[in-house]
Amino acid sequence: MSDEKHDPKVAATERDETLPGEVEEEEVVEGARVRRRGIYLLPNSLTTASLFSGFYAIVSAANGMFANAAIAIFVSMVLDGLDGRVARMTNTQSKFGEEYDSLADMVAFGVAPGLVAFFWSLNSLGQVGWAITFIYVAGAALRLARFNTQIGSVDKKYFVGLPSPSAAAVVAGLVWCFHSWEPSGWLTALTIVVVGGSGVLMVSNILYNSFKDLDMRGRVPFAAILLVVLMFVVVALDPGTVLFSAFLIYTLSGPVRSLFRQGRRHPVER
Fold it and tell me: What's the structural domain count of the chain?
């Protein structure tokens, strides 16, 4: 009897079965269903790194290192943006990767920002503090679930509701910007508004620009590179303040645009 018959992988292949712990997916390739086993290493490694950054943010906040916690959330944002692009560039998209990315996003952009804000400021409010935190965490969970169900059915130019990475960025930017300040009433009130407001905006029907219609491959004037250099210089001067201000403007752009559209619509109706 040959060695191949004793090989569990060969035997599982002949019986069309999946080994314990092995992932199997079905894909449609040129009209035919193809079964693929295993996972793609490169994009899922980036997703794991994003998950680790979110977990590190929670641990850092629990130990009072709020600046490190906020930075870790921004690092997670960068890694989350890379894993999808790398998967598309290398043609390694998979259903497993999509589900894994959603779970990692829930930790990095849902649980981590909420707990960082709670450990930093909201824990002094008692039950009100954890209630505001839960509003944010629940909003992130609902936002991610709705996003997964709306893929391919909404206009790619817009996001319905505030994207969870942007909500995480405005919360992390707030903590990074004011982490060295002494606790005060107005700062606690600002934290309540930012954390609770971000949670509500994530589950709202307000449209946000996705910027997916920007052509990054086309030619631009040479002076455009100077603007990019200037942008990096401004961010490097005070990263916390600049990032918090930028994402706060983006967060407010949705409600402002919605009010502007309603104001234009009512005179026409009258």
Answer: 2
Beta-carbon contacts of residue 129 (< 8 Å; ≥ 6 apart) = 118, 121, 122, 123
Distance CA 61, CA 63 (A): 5
CA–CA separation, 52 vs 75, rounded Å?
Answer: 10
Which token pair is 94? 């998979």
CA angle 104, 105, 110 (to 5 degrees): 115
Cα–Cα distance, 196 to 174 (Å, whole number) = 13
Record the pTM. 0.82
**What's the one-letter identity of residue 71?**
I
Burial, 128: exposed, middle or buried (Cβ in 10 Å; 0-12, 13-18, 19+)? exposed
Containing structural domain, residue 9 = 3-36
Model confidence over 52-64: pLDDT tens digits? 999 999 999 999 9
Which token pair is 40? 């793609």
Query: Is 136 inside a domain boundary?
Result: yes
Residues 123 and 241 in one domain: yes
What does the pLDDT look like over 154-173, one tens digit per residue? 667 888 899 999 999 999 99
Same domain, yes or no, for 11 and 116?
Answer: no
Residues 109 and 18 in one domain: no
pLDDT at residue 267 greater than cutoff 90: no
Instruction: Tell me: do 73 and 12 sit in the same domain.
Output: no
